[in-house]
Amino acid sequence: MAAVETGAGVGTVVALWRYPVKSMMGEELNAAELTERGVHGDRAYALLDAESGKVASAKNPRKWLTLFDHRASFVEPPKKDNAMPPVRITLPDGSILTSDEPDVHHRLSAELGREVTLTAAAPSEPELEEYWPNIEGLAHNDLVTDEAMPEGTFFDVSVLHILTTATLNRLRELYPQGRFEPRRFRPNIIIDPSPADGFAENDWIGKTLSIGVEVRLQVTGGCQRCVMTTLPQADLPKDPGILRAAAQYNDVHVGVYAKVTHGGRVQRGDRLGLGVSM
């Protein structure tokens, strides 16, 4: 492990999330194992569109809007050196199927209205479709683009997404009619920072976060938001103002991406330190 000059504590872990199937609702954890692929089991599965071969993603809600109506959890906790266990998927009507059922692909295809395959084997060069709404500050407007994903994974950009309560609170102040809840942003780790100022995690970019004795994370950049933050889910309404506020007040970023430079166990209540890699 690289030496890290660690400064004062900068916050506390208050929530941990894992999303076993890409673009489905996930599961909140009390503790998680972090590896070089982020939270162990995160985005372990995804749906592949039979027609295009692309990864199904709510980034294109015109095609995959109802993915957010599905919730995924593991049938048993995944273990670091073992094969990934099956996932349990709760459908919009409350019925449940598991990934090892023989008709799982047929049932999900019927549910989504497109022929899909549920898989844990990512393509070597995975791609997804992204719809860019007509909001000032985005790279495109009212356009669907093909976006490359990291090789052999189901991640959009990075294996780990960190968000602070300070950022959510600041956005609530700036756009009070919006409901800035963590589930809109699908973070892996939520931090209550100290001091709790504005977009606190912006200042962590390029630095190393330590969690407990073992875990070291390199904060690589801001997390650029997309149309997914605006979509309805459960009791949250559709709200383009969520993304518009991110664009207007923080260059479309909410939270930061990180890579795991040294893994280990993380749990709620763990303290964070901030340092500079040496």
Give an account of the 3D structure:
- The chain is mainly beta.
- It has a single domain, classed as M1 Pyruvate Kinase, Domain 3 (Beta Barrel).
- 12% of the residues lie in helices and 36% in strands.
- The protein contains four helices and 18 strands.
- It has a seven-stranded mixed beta barrel with strand order 1-13-12-16-15-14-18.
- Mean pLDDT is 94; it is low at 1-6.
Helix-strand layout with pairing:
Layout: E1 4-18, E2 27-29, E3 31-35, E4 38-39, E5 46-49, H1 61-64, E6 71-74, E7 87-90, E8 96-98, H2 104-112, E9 116-119, E10 127-132, E11 143-148, E12 160-164, H3 165-174, E13 189-193, E14 208-211, E15 215-224, H4 240-250, E16 253-262, E17 264-267, E18 271-277
Parallel strand pairs: 12-13
Antiparallel strand pairs: 1-2, 1-13, 1-18, 3-4, 3-17, 5-9, 6-7, 7-8, 10-11, 12-16, 14-15, 14-18, 15-16
Which characteristics define this entry?
278 residues; mainly beta; M1 Pyruvate Kinase, Domain 3; 7-stranded mixed beta barrel; disordered N terminus
The secondary-structure element order is: EEEEEHEEEHEEEEHEEEHEEE
Shape: globular
Averaged pLDDT: 94
Rounded Rg: 18 Å
Distance between the termini: 11 Å
CATH fold annotation: M1 Pyruvate Kinase, Domain 3
Low-confidence stretches: 1-6
Q: Can you identify the CATH class?
A: Mainly Beta
Strand order of the largest sheet: 1-13-12-16-15-14-18
**Which structural class should the secondary elements be placed in?**
mainly beta
- Please give the share of residues in helix: 10-25%
Number of domains: 1
Q: Give the strand tally.
A: 18
Number of helices: 4
Name the beta content range.
35-45%
Largest sheet: 7 strands, mixed, barrel
According to CATH, the homologous superfamily is PK beta-barrel domain-like
CATH architecture: Beta Barrel
